[in-house]
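Hi there. Long-time user, first ticket. I'm pasting a complex I've been working with (about 488 residues overall). I'd like to know whether the download I got is complete or cut off, because the file seemed smaller than I expected. Thanks.
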Amino acid sequence: MSDLNISKTSTTYRPVTCENCNLENLCMPKGLDKQEIGGLALLVNRNNIRQRGEAIYHAGSPFRGMIALRSGSAKLASFDQNGNELVVAFILPGEIVGFDGLATQLHNCTVTALETLNYCHLPAHKIEQLVINSPGLIYVLLQRSCNELDSQVQKMLMSRHSAEKRVANFILNISERLRVRGYSELEFRLSMSRKEIGNHLGIAHETVSRIIQLFQSRQFIEIKSKQLRIIDKKELFNFLQPIH
Amino acid sequence: MSDLNISKTSTTYRPVTCENCNLENLCMPKGLDKQEIGGLALLVNRNNIRQRGEAIYHAGSPFRGMIALRSGSAKLASFDQNGNELVVAFILPGEIVGFDGLATQLHNCTVTALETLNYCHLPAHKIEQLVINSPGLIYVLLQRSCNELDSQVQKMLMSRHSAEKRVANFILNISERLRVRGYSELEFRLSMSRKEIGNHLGIAHETVSRIIQLFQSRQFIEIKSKQLRIIDKKELFNFLQPIH
DNA sequence: AACAATTTTTGATCTAGCTCAATTTTCTAA
DNA sequence: TTAGAAAATTGAGCTAGATCAAAAATTGTT
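Hi, the file is complete. Here it is re-exported in full:
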């Protein structure tokens, strides 16, 4: 496996190594024998690239399998009967998508690159093989999908809160996810537009803009276009407390 | 397995048979050999009972395993740091809960009986055994959890719509879920309170009440306390269309 | 059957955040 | 480097649905 050893404190999302990639537990899950690990390595296609705006898979198309993002970022979006987009999630390096096609064998969502990205791909037809040869890996996938469910419940909880809390939580959530992958948690690029943030959080993009400016004016954050620096994490956390 | 052959057109939620129970695919999934099926039958505890208000498991407690509801109904709820309840879902006969504890081994949610209910229980410690002995069953669980994710995305989509659309969709959703399990889709008991419906849909209970009265005044539905009859399904569907 | 507690309904007011509109800034591509 | 397009910001008014309040209906209990 080709590790790309690039500084982890970079302010943009750079390639993750196999060690901190979320595929880690798929490529080399604890408790699995070497045969299973070797088998998986043969099944995964590495080093796929998409440019900003290009899709990895489309809603309505046949299940492509699981995708692990190695660098860059993406959005996961669904569409209503009228074609209106709903941004379900933003995907950061080391994170996995594809669950939206697994149950029905048809993708429910579209995954679109927010900037140039690189991903690994476990094709759909090879998952059936894993059921027989590497049941432990399927169990890992089950745990991951339950993690996704937990996140969705978290988002549902946030949707009861004010727009200010939602934006504060959003910034802290991205920060934390970057941190656990070894990136800078205090300075990073928000590669999605205000409109996409608003869509995801269920608030108007004008409101997102106003709140970001508010946080900046209060010196909680500094933002230059898409480049964000968290100045006062504690104050952002305070926004999540009941009194606000 | 003891089948309880009770009329499926009953207006309250009665016991499901093994054939239409959602555990069906766990008890006797297609493509699994008899050894696996027999093995599972030994692992599942049947005929557990809870009275209205009693919990099957609590948020924060260790993962209890998977629960399949055989009769009655329940609510799945999470809580914020302040103790405010969020109704994540309502559970109908034949449906499964427990995914909220699988990833972290701690339950994220509480499941509470909305009326007397009966359930089957696959204990947590036996799931590990299934990974080795019945990998096909774990794959079925994975598909189920992905189905849950799909539903969550559906709910997220609905949250962008008006309160009227949300209530119309809620009624039609319950109706459809009862239908696929073989119950009457046009006449049933809404065992949850207006407050719980509102909590789940993200609207005030007063608003739920007003909209239900509106639907009744327009002769789309007839409601006596918790007993609901759908008079004009087509009109309810119309509410989901863009023009409204 | 009567009481108390809870839930539901209905009315009246209030407000967070949306929508519409007009600039300003940033990005893209020649 | 510059023009045109897209995104972000800022302002001002508007509205769906929240909140507050009070009455009516339902449910559970002795």
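A couple of notes from our side: Confidence is low (pLDDT under 50) at residues 1-11 of chain A. Chain A touches chain B at residues 78, 80-82, 84, 86, 88, 99-100, 102-104, 108-109, 131-132, 135-136, 138-139, 141-150, 152-153, 155-157, 159-160, 202, 242 (CB under 8 Å).
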